[in-house]
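Data availability (excerpt). All sequences and predicted token strings are deposited with the supplementary files. A representative entry, ArsR/SmtB family transcription factor, is shown inline so that the format can be inspected without opening the archive.
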Amino acid sequence: MTEEQVDTAFAALADPTRRRVVQLLGERPYRAGQLAEATGTTAPAMSRHLRVLLNAGLVTDERVEADARHRVFHLNPQPVEAVQAWLDQVQAHWNEQLGSFKRHVERRAKK
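Structure token line:
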């Protein structure tokens, strides 16, 4: 995942409603109206949230054959996994730094 993609994903996930949508879509697909109801937002607000998530690549959608006006939204796992991989790298760096600091403090304490 590029730095720009990480930035876009974090920007999209900065909003608590969008984070809740991602959580819900991690459980199963939803229609926009169901997501609006589950998050306590209006349909226009949910539409804006979904647009941000779609643009960030965190969510995909599909048209319902019976009625092309309705779409079903799904979580796209690849960007979520890529963000997790980035976070794992950051955590590994900090664990290494803290381990080095601990060894330094222990050496100093023995003197």
